[in-house]
Amino acid sequence: MIELDEVEVSFEGRRVLGPLSGRFGKGNLAIVGPSRSGKTTLMRAMVGLLRPSSGRVLVDGEDLARLDRDSLRRVRLRFGLIFQSDALFDSMDVLDNVMFPLRRRGIPAAEAKERAMQALASVGLDAQARTLPERLSGGMKKRLGLARAIVARPRYLLADDPLAGLDPGTARRMLDLLFGLWSSEKGGLIIAAADGEPLQGRCPEILHL
Q: How far apart are CA 144 and CA 10, in angstroms?
């Protein structure tokens, strides 16, 4: 469970988020709001990539602000992240991009490759395993980001506006794939979006910023 206790984030004296309290990470949650409303800031705080100006973030009961670097890294391994900007390694092919989080966890190469190919097959990209990201369409890059996020079998999956830049048809197929692959039994899904309409009926909880 991800718990926020009066979390507030300010930059240069200007408050950009909060104060916000709540418990998240069980089932599907949508975070909806326009650009610069704090969606990405909130996700970064949940993962421990950004320290709040005040308040506390607890992940499975652990206060992120009180953890040392190694402990914080251990907690971050419980998260899978889908970035709005894709954040793919252009110098790596599709397979190596998906293997990367597994190799960072010390998983042997053979096992990492097998699991990465399984993840690619689940998003329909196994035939592009040795293709460079620059040769993929926008929708394919989003699916690659999804494969990389789920390959390590995280407890929480955070998707930061995964529909950005996609046409309505591709966005709908991306959502079908995302919710099809990530059921509530696997853990918590938190998805941020500028438009909450496509998420109606898919997320029982919607947080408006």
A: 33
Query: Helix/strand/coil (H, E, C) string of the chain?
Result: CEEEEEEEEEECCEEEEEEEEEEECCCEEEEECCCCCCHHHHHHHHHCCCCCCEEEEEECCEEHHHCCHHHHHHHHCCEEEECCCCCCCCCCCHHHHHHHHHHHCCCCHHHHHHHHHHHHHHCCCHHHCCCCHHHCCHHHHHHHHHHHHHCCCCCEEEEECCCCCCCHHHHHHHHHHHHHHCCCCCCEEEEEECCCHHHCCCCCEEEEC
pLDDT of residue 184 exceeding 60, the answer is no
**Residue 187 above 70 pLDDT?**
no
CB atoms closer than 10 angstroms to residue 195? 12
Residue type, 166: L
Q: Which domains does the chain have, with CATH numbers?
A: 1-78+157-209 (3.40.50.300), 90-153 (no CATH)
Tens digit of each residue's pLDDT (9 = 90 or more) over 135-169: 998 889 988 999 999 898 889 999 998 888 788 88
CA distance linking residue 192 with residue 47, whole number of Å: 14
